[in-house]
Amino acid sequence: VQLQESGPGLVKPSQTLSLTCTVSGGSITTNYYSWSWIRLPPGKGLEWSGHITYSGSTSYSPSLESRTSISRDTSKNQFTLQLSSVTPEDTAVYYCEGSWSTKSMYWGQGTQVTVSS
After folding, report:
1. Alpha carbon distance, N-terminus to C-terminus of the chain
2. Coil, strand, or helix at residue 102?
3. pLDDT tens digits, residue range 8-53?
4. Do 81 and 17 form a contact (C-beta atoms < 8 A)?
5. Could you give the C-alpha distances from 27 to 35, 43, 53, 68, 84, in angstroms and in order?
């Protein structure tokens, strides 16, 4: 299974960041898988943003929940992150990740997103 992030590398403050993860070699609807967005801000540790499960249910980090939405397109085997009202604090390398039950299985290579005017 391979994951590939795509989206703009530069977003202006107050805009909405939108990233897509394309999954190949496996289905995002396979039982017991969850598909997450995780970010690594400069100089900080990994931060889980949220996930969408094989059944389509979602869960978000409490610190980001008010600004975060994760959706999926099963016909394209993709899931998408939308983070609204971004600030420079949202600058990070964003990763998509797939877990089976609670075991992390697959990671994308990551994509740098910079929030700047």
Report:
1. 36
2. coil
3. 999 999 999 999 999 999 999 999 999 999 999 999 999 999 999 9
4. yes
5. 11, 34, 11, 23, 28
